[in-house]
Amino acid sequence: MSGEVQSEVKSPFVLRIARIDVDATLELRQSVLWPTLSIADVRLTEDDKGLHFGAFLPQHEKPIAVISLFDTPLPDQELAMTSEIDSPSQRKSARFRKFACDPMYQNQGIGTELLQHVIEAARLTLGASIIWCDARITSSAWYNKRGMIQFGDPFYKKDVQYVRMMMSLDANACHCLGDQSV
């Protein structure tokens, strides 16, 4: 299910990845993803039902990268279009959202380590066998390098173009994330 994966340098940082409260994600979500919106506007109605994670450096109290994970099925209208996955409607899925890394720490493997952690949480905590997201078109190649594939047609949120991406969480599909950098 996963595509060709390119090897890159692993993060040179000693990271601590931990579950955090949704409020600890909001400042980074807003500053990286939607800087023109207020912090209140980047809070999701479903945030109270999600699992939220942050990546921390030893000298930082605030996370340098955040991501939120939800027990969310694949969109119904897309199920027929996902021929790469056998019977997706029969497989439990999880969705990650609001994935943001401080620009000072991008392209250093931190986002990849955080994504890998969330993939394991989706599999082990939520029992998911598929993980998916709405990826900005500008980030879709990054997700593709980490084994995710596009499904469905591009669409817009506000003035930003997105595409849906997914990955099988079968044991043989997740090994590809180990040596990637953001």
UniProtKB/TrEMBL annotation:
Residues 13-170 form the N-acetyltransferase domain. InterPro entries: Acyl_CoA_acyltransferase, GNAT_dom. Pfam families: Acetyltransf_10. This is N-acetyltransferase domain-containing protein. PROSITE patterns: GNAT (PS51186). SUPFAM superfamilies: Acyl-CoA N-acyltransferases (Nat). GO terms for molecular function: acyltransferase activity, transferring groups other than amino-acyl groups.
